[in-house]
């Protein structure tokens, strides 16, 4: 059977852990040569090692998605190694809990935390797309998937900066899809529900029972379950899908 991303060059940010790692591994399994980017070098290295151990092709790049020069160098590295850029998963993100601000309301949060949440979760996606779109336009097209969240579709308690950033990602995705459709580039967003990664430790500690009670499937998702949807959105099998969101949340948003 033909693999979904055979011969394509793919880039994944935040690929040293969780959803990004699972996507990078799934893309490689489907035949892509993958640039595994993360702020954390050891995590990116572990992902590359897992891909190579399975017979795939990948390189690690250390890049902070909030740093313009590092983002430009990251995209250049993908093109230099694999000749072009066909697919990108802009996935790096931080939760309020990671910054020690989980559970805070609008009046409680420090501006430093707000700025960092917007910088990584929203501006970082814009900055990556700025360079990825240019690379894709040079070779006639591509597909981008931005990681938003169910927090990009509804409000959630105690995490307003994250909610604001993820709503921004959904809007940015729609606008980019319109602007770049004629160049042959599709842009979509994946909206995961609660997925079992290091990121949700704080949310689960604060309100894990309520979270599981609302999800129709009564369980957390696995990173691999998000990765499958991202691979499909990057593949030619989703050729008429652009400017939209795909929600993968075990039925959380259904209630
Ligand atoms: N886990 C969930 O329940 C869930 C739900 C919805 C959306 N998401 C989103 O999925 C994405 C991945 O999250 P995850 O759950 O896999 O978390 P994770 O913490 O396991 O992985 C996040 C990765 O992003 C990297 N990262 C953080 N800041 C970065 C930066 N400035 N530049 C480059 N890399 C950076 C981290 O080093 C880490 O490897 C995030 O955008 C997150 O908001 C997660």
From TrEMBL:
The keyword Phosphoprotein does not apply. Transmembrane segments: none annotated. Signal peptide: none annotated. Keywords: Oxidoreductase. InterPro entries: NAD(P)-bd_dom_sf (IPR036291), Sc_DH/Rdtase_CS (IPR020904), SDR_fam (IPR002347). It comes from the Bacteria. Belongs to the short-chain dehydrogenases/reductases (SDR) family. This is SDR family oxidoreductase. It comes from Plastoroseomonas hellenica.
């Amino acid at each position: 059977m033909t693999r979904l991303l055979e011969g394509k060059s793919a880039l994944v940010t935040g690929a040293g852990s969780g959803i990004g790692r699972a996507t990078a591994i799934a893309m490689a399994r489907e035949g892509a040569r993958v640039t595994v980017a993360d702020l954390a070098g050891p995590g990116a290295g572990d992902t590359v090692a897992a891909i190579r151990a399975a017979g795939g092709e990948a390189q690690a790049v250390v890049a902070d998605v909030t740093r313009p020069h590092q983002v430009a160098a990251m995209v250049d590295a993908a093109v230099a190694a694999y000749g072009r850029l066909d697919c990108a998963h802009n996935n790096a993100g931080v939760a309020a809990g990671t910054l020690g601000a989980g559970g805070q309301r609008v009046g409680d949060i420090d501006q430093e935390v707000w700025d960092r949440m917007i910088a990584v979760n929203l501006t970082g996606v814009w900055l990556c797309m700025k360079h990825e779109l240019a690379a894709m336009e040079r070779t006639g097209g591509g597909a981008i998937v931005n990681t938003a969240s169910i927090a990009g579709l509804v409000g959630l308690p105690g995490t307003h900066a994250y909610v604001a950033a993820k709503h921004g990602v959904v809007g940015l995705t729609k606008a980019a899809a319109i602007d770049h459709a004629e160049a042959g580039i599709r842009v979509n967003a994946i909206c995961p529900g609660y997925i079992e990664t290091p990121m949700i430790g704080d949310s689960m500690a604060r309100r894990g029972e309520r979270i599981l009670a609302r999800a129709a499937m009564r369980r957390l998702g696995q990173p691999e379950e998000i990765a499958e949807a991202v691979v499909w959105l990057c593949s030619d099998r989703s050729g008429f899908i652009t400017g939209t969101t795909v929600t993968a949340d075990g039925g959380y948003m259904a209630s």
